[in-house]
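pasting for ref
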Amino acid sequence: MTGFGLGPVLIFGIVLSPVYLMLIGWLLGRPRELRLPLIGIGYLAGFTALAWGGMALFALLVDILFIA
């Protein structure tokens, strides 16, 4: 398969554009306060890490129960 697929453009360009706009609004909005946007970004990163970790553990559990 050659070329650049449409999927990454849709996911990173269109689906995640509200997240990009939210982050830009947090960081460049007025009044300029950096503490609360960093707390929000920390929450987003934490929830993302928890979701990925949970999915990894679930995949491991499925692998152990049904494959092994």
